[in-house]
Amino acid sequence: MNKNDYFITGLQTKNEKVILEIYKTIYPNVKRFVLQNSGQEPDAEDVFQKAILQIMARLQVQNIEIKSTFDGYLFTACKNLWRRELNKTKNVVTIDQPIEPDDDINDLAQSILEQERWEFFQEKLELISGNCKQILQRFFKKIPYKIIAKELDYNDENVVRQRVFKCKSKLTEMIKSDNRFNQLKTL
User: The RNA polymerase sigma-70 region domain covers which part of the protein (predicted)?
Assistant: First the structure.
């Protein structure tokens, strides 16, 4: 059994030994990421726990196909959850009311949906041409056009702008033509 299957089976069966191993091997990286991005250790613990619960909840309803490593998959889920938390706290006004249990359920459902959308997007990004993938990956990392032109040996920034537009259009078309798009969009 490979490592991915080992961890997934462990989560499905709620095997404490496997879950402890997941914590020991992956949590330190998540903690480091959260601490480096305006968080505290309790935040890292919460994010990690939510990500584990999210994966366990998804495994109850469907199989998860992990194209990389389980470590990378869980770490990405944690990063997405932490970024979501940071965005939420920017827009929150503090009130003196208790948090309702339904809020946690809705939050978990929302984070699962966001993870599915992210995976869907990544799947489509993998299907476009190598050149488009290189350009869009740099574009999504907010690398300036000038640097992209230099790295990918284009004549100037305008050529890169045109390529980004064409590649984004292709990616958008691929996403919208998939039946899953409407399901993920409307949930």
Answer: 23-90
Q: How many Cβ atoms from other residues are within 10 Å of residue 130's Cβ?
A: 7
Q: Is the pLDDT of residue 33 over 60?
A: yes
Three state DSSP letters for 31-82 = HHHHHHCCCCHHHHHHHHHHHHHHHHHHHHHCCCCCCCCHHHHHHHHHHHHH
The Cα–Cα gap between 179 and 181 comes to 5
Same structural domain for residues 109 and 21?
yes
Same domain? For 54 and 138 the reply is no
Does 17 share its domain with 37?
Answer: yes
Cβ neighbours of residue 117 closer than 8 Å, sequence gap 6 or more: 184
Residues whose CB falls within 8 Å of the CB of residue 134, separated by 6 or more in sequence, listed in order = 152
Q: In this structure, are 123 and 133 located in the same domain?
A: no
More reliable by pLDDT, 181 or 71 = 71
